[in-house]
Amino acid sequence: MKDFQALIGEWHGEGEVPMEPPMKISVEAKLERLGEFIVMRSVGEPAEMPDSVSIIGGAPDGEPQPMHYFDSRGVKRLFMMAIEGSTWKIWRAPGEDWKGPRRTGLQPALHRRDLG
Prior knowledge:
This protein is mainly β. Helices cover 0% and strands 53% of the residues.
């Protein structure tokens, strides 16, 4: 979990969902440690974006970490995540059978806030 230390803090993201008309989105996210785990909370706009909480961790250090996702719609999912160099990768966990809306083309831009 040492690889994930750079993610701890408060973040702001902006993007656009490719639909007609395009929907602009923004999100506030906070990542913090809870013992050996990381908790990620996010709140987004517009109202169609669900608020969510994720619990990250549980695998041995240096391996992809499970990310248990829960949102305000009652959706729960299991993702895997890893840090490779300066890239944060998130993907659906093997065996996860989610056939929801595709998000192809969603290009959020994340910016870390200075907490000092």
